[in-house]
């Protein structure tokens, strides 16, 4: 019928997604229409030569009409060379086509862009004469580790009470799913084991070449009663573990294809660990809101374990057995790939600002982890100083909050053990550095064009770019060292592929330098060269987990940031070093798995931090890179007391913490029980070191503040008379507070109005809101018979009045607070503050003792002598910080000058915490 339509052009991709519809109208008898030919052709839009055709698929209209509903719905068609079908597959195209007559209804032809469960091979149309070769993927599954808890501990508790069973078992029953092109095989189930040794060969048959891009590896938890839970999912990209090209091949007796250096290679991987990411590791009996992350949808926010696998491809045969146990010799062969070395992550936090007001009500801390090391909420890993000191946020005078670290910057250290794959990551960093250099030089040329520089100057910039690229292509990539590194088959194949590709890029750059005549055409070719380098800059066998920074508030994970390990990896060679290693970074943390579009653009916190990753033997390189201040290491313990009948004591029934403990009260830490680790010595005696954020009240930074209190009432029976509740006056969280007539007016403030009922909320005409139980919440404006609790909000505004007398009193009060160092709260599990209030029943203060290294100090952990038997030699972590400016130990927290922007308590904060890096001393 000579009708033709074409799609839009998709640039620089081998997996285009169009999602376009075309309509062809005919006025012919059906007997003639079914004989017409439909031709699907794919072209390369960047070439004008006669061989721009990539591949095509032809069929008659009758093929479509004979299908159900006269339609082909979401079918894959194999593209081939129309002149020589024996050349094999040229690609695959997914289409939907239907033939509609008068009154016919079109079927639903909507397609998902990524459908991992689709069985593609059974949904494929092939032209006559084109054959696909049978092939087999063999996944050698050796073992897995660090799998999180997935089951409830209820039954284990029952067994413990009745003394049934022996030792406590791990609460996870893992097995592995290996999937490709909609087909799956399953390994055996390893019951009650979070570090299972599978040692199984899993095989999947396929038709080669396949249009599927991803190989799926998923770990699940077997469940007796409910559907199996997904622990984590990861994918192997076919384009990263294989390469196409003109192949010099030979086939041996087992039909295994060996591809030589001149060509490509079949999908190959390992033996190597592969990491899984998903939702947070903390177990909950209720379904989590981040469960979709465990299916590989979106960016995983936490490390969920890893598996040691190996992938090989065999052409010419399909598997006879899907799963079988591995021979014993292969178990020994893989041992050399499991050697570990000790690595260390350093982090120095310089500034935390723009904290959302929604998270400013509880102390905030930051956690750094790599893999499962550093996870403070996981009891299966040894403790380490991976978190900053919990700090109260202070209002910045505008909208956000900040952490008042001032001149004392918290530092954390995380020790871990991983395989030494430094040569893989160093090679990747070399390629990324080449790309960054090309990008910067290309940007200079673009700026020169916009500035309308003379053509000779623009040409000189282009020549400089090409000269640098030619020089960079001669840079040798890192290679494994005998006796230090263990390489596998994919390492060798990728090294050869990268070397030949870089040589080809160099030749093209030399030719472009000598023959370029038009600047715009030359820039297009440079962009193509940069894209070729970018295709080389991937490392599928990166077994070192990402470094994750978490923001925690009230023991809950709020926001995170993931940084690939290679970006932080240290190397003596600057070309091989990660681009962010030891460099100041400004990170915008993000909420995990944001489904609410309105919250998508919210900023939880803006963090300025320095990170470093390297071997523990390279630790001194981190210290040499820091020149902002003195790195100080402290032993830390808290003195706890309770108020009984107006007297502060460390005894009594309400004393729910040890007299001396850590900040959370979990571990007893007596001063005399601290013994310096080997290589470390005490510098001075213990001294009181108050937390700086405690010196700021909740109104710090405000010029105007709205005080509020809730009047609470209750009744014992439905429909009876309302009376005062057990807590007649509370704050918005339900914690007790003074009644409105006894509300104190802070020094330096004045009342602007009297107390008034807040009627601008969902309340009745008297200002009350009702619920069944105050601790559960769910208040509403309408009174029901079954409601037993109600409350109304009283508000009173006040404004800050600054005067010399007020400032002097605040400074004297601040010095007194620093001297005594007490922090007060109604209960130990509530937020602490510096000023004692009527409802406060507990208090604590922090003690520090500085340590200095006597040379090559070891890990800074303390063995607690009195708790060795109770806690099974559990270790206590130290507290370290980077102290800028004044480094006198006894003046650990200097007085902060008050700012005109607000007042209250410790004198209000302004628009920041004074974290300038100018006034520093040598590290």
UniProtKB/TrEMBL annotation:
Residues 882-923 are annotated as: Disordered. Residues 887-901, 913-923 have a biased composition (Acidic residues). GO terms for biological process: membrane fusion; plasma membrane organization. Residues 1-77, 116-251 form the C2 domain. It is a single-pass type II membrane protein. It is found in: Cell membrane; Cytoplasmic vesicle membrane. Residues 902-912 have a biased composition (Gly residues). Keywords: Cell membrane, Coiled coil, Cytoplasmic vesicle, Membrane, Repeat, Signal-anchor, Transmembrane, Transmembrane helix. CDD domains: C2B_Ferlin, C2C_Ferlin. Transmembrane segments: none annotated. Residues 502-539 form a coiled coil. One of its GO terms (cellular component) is cytoplasmic vesicle membrane. PANTHER family: FER-1-LIKE (PTHR12546), SPERM VESICLE FUSION PROTEIN FER-1 (PTHR12546:SF33). Belongs to the ferlin family. This is Dysferlin. It comes from Elysia marginata.
